[in-house]
Amino acid sequence: MFVAIACDFSSGDHKKDAELVIKQYGFSRIMENLFESTTIGEVYLTRLKRDLDQITDSYDNLRFYQYPVENTMVITSLKEKKWRRLVVRI
Q: d(Cα 57, Cα 13) in Å, to the nearest integer?
């Protein structure tokens, strides 16, 4: 599964802590605040989301792009400490 993460952090401390966690899960930096992985599994992705949820606050925004998930693209976002999920049928 391909997963990309776009990040917008409110502070440098959150950015530094989150980048360390993201890299521990095997993601590589593509651009500033953009990471991707083609090897992460669903279980580890769920753990990553939980770990990032603990690090961030309500001013941080994260967006996960997952493809393919049952022939769909799933966009999961964390905004104002609330997770939202959008499923795009292809």
A: 11
Which strand (E) or helix (H) includes residue 90?
Answer: none
What distance in Å separates the CA atoms of residue 35 and residue 19, rounded to the nearest whole number?
Answer: 9
Write out the DSSP string of 20-45. Answer: HHHHHTT-EEEETTEEEESS--HHHH
pLDDT tens across the length of the chain (90 residues): 999 999 999 999 999 999 999 999 999 999 999 999 999 999 999 999 999 999 999 999 999 999 998 889 999 999 999 999 999 997
Q: Contact 40/25 with Cβ under 8 angstroms? A: yes
Q: How far apart are CA 13 and CA 41, in angstroms?
A: 27
